[in-house]
């Protein structure tokens, strides 16, 4: 059952990253809707980079690149969190931007007509609606993060797959065919974690679609 | 940054790029075929098959590609199914992509207003005709943006192949770093090559999306 320990590492990394992504993503999303061309361009490039670069490449850049360039020796787990947050903030920001845009203009206008300041409009009118639209989408992001954490074994974090390999190696003599069973268990573990979460997201999406 | 190093590494990266692209596109086409087939099975509500396809989609959407590949590559040989890395990569990508494509395509099929089918039937079309001439073209069009996103996602996921010792871009970079410790050059080239591979796809995607939206009915 050491596999569960490995799974916990994976889930922990993704939860921390998700928390960071949600907070910074909200800010990024609001900034993305700004009219300022420079800000827009910067976020556009940022989003495009994150979309195009495989997470594995980002992991390598942060983990191996920083050591070379700045002489920083980052803990693997810290680098993983940095990469996932970097990725998450972009994705989250885009989701927030989408949700903000999808709110009808009349909401802003009515709020202004009622004499609310723009801060008040955001706090009481726009954000509550946005968040409702966002929650299912961000839950999906969580499952994607959990799935992507399987990559962190490449930078030396001992998570589920690594533990699985260790178990197989350790029992090579006793049961040479352990690979099938162990990897099957890993397969099912991931499914059991992600499936309920994505079901929940689908349910909320249906429930709140108005 | 040492440019001589970069130039001397170029051929290896080029080979890796070609291999990545080959496996990537094979995987994408397999994914499209599997996806459309699955979506059609679900849409036509074929009794038992529908359940199986549904289970397959859920299973592959909710597990990471790395785990799927490990299963295909390390676990299946134990029960006597030996697959080469290339086939394994293509198969893994195709199965993962198939599940995503099926979801995208299914929502495309679902979004077609029922009146379209009813009108077609009232014109005397058979079920096959309705599907081929009315439903399918519209569904394909409305699911193109999602599909392009999936294609980029799949091509990105090819970076995972390095773990099953397929000589893709990631593997080459790792290998060269391990041998000559020119980390910065190798990583820079890795980034550039991924950009070269994926930026055109991304741009093509947004062009397609815009053109299709332009041709949309109503609006």
How would you sum up this structure, described in words?
The complex is a heterodimer of chains A (210) and B (219). Chain A is mostly helical and 210 residues long. Chain A has one domain: Orthogonal Bundle (MetI-like fold), CATH 1.10.3720. Chain A has eight helices and no strands. In chain A, helix 1 packs across helix 4. Chain A is elongated. Chain B is mainly alpha-helical. Chain B has a single domain, classed as MetI-like (MetI-like fold, Orthogonal Bundle), CATH 1.10.3720.10. In chain B, 81% of the residues lie in helices and 0% in strands. In chain B, helix 1 crosses helix 4, helix 2 packs across helix 4 and helix 4 crosses helix 6. The longest helix of chain B has 41 residues. Chain B is flat, with a radius of gyration of 21 Å. Chain B starts with a helix and ends in a 5-residue tail after the last helix. The interface between A and B is large, with 39 and 39 residues.
The gist of it:
With 210 residues, chain A is mainly α.
List its traits.
heterodimer, A: 210 residues, mainly alpha, MetI-like fold, 82% helix, B: 219 residues, 81% helix, 0% strand, flat
Instruction: Average the pLDDT over all residues of chain B and give the rounded result.
Output: 83
Average the pLDDT over all residues of chain A and give the rounded result: 82
Name of the CATH homologous superfamily of chain A: MetI-like
- How many helix segments of chain B? 8
Second CATH tier, the architecture of chain A: Orthogonal Bundle
Structural class of chain A: mainly alpha
Weakly predicted, low-confidence segments of chain B: none
End-to-end distance of chain B: 52 Å
Biggest sheet architecture of chain A:
none
Q: What's the CATH architecture name of chain B?
A: Orthogonal Bundle
Low-confidence stretches of chain A: none
Q: What portion of residues of chain B is helical? A: over 70%
Number of helices of chain A: 8
> Whole-number radius of gyration of chain A?
21 Å
Assign the structural class of chain B, choosing from mainly alpha, mainly beta, alpha/beta, alpha+beta, or little secondary structure: mainly alpha
| CATH topology heading of chain B | MetI-like fold
Strand percent estimate of chain A? under 5%
What gross morphology of chain B would you assign? flat
Determine the oligomeric state from the structure: heterodimer
Instruction: Please name the two chains that share the biggest interface, counting residues whose Cβ lies under 8 Å from a Cβ on the partner chain.
Output: A-B, 39 and 39 residues
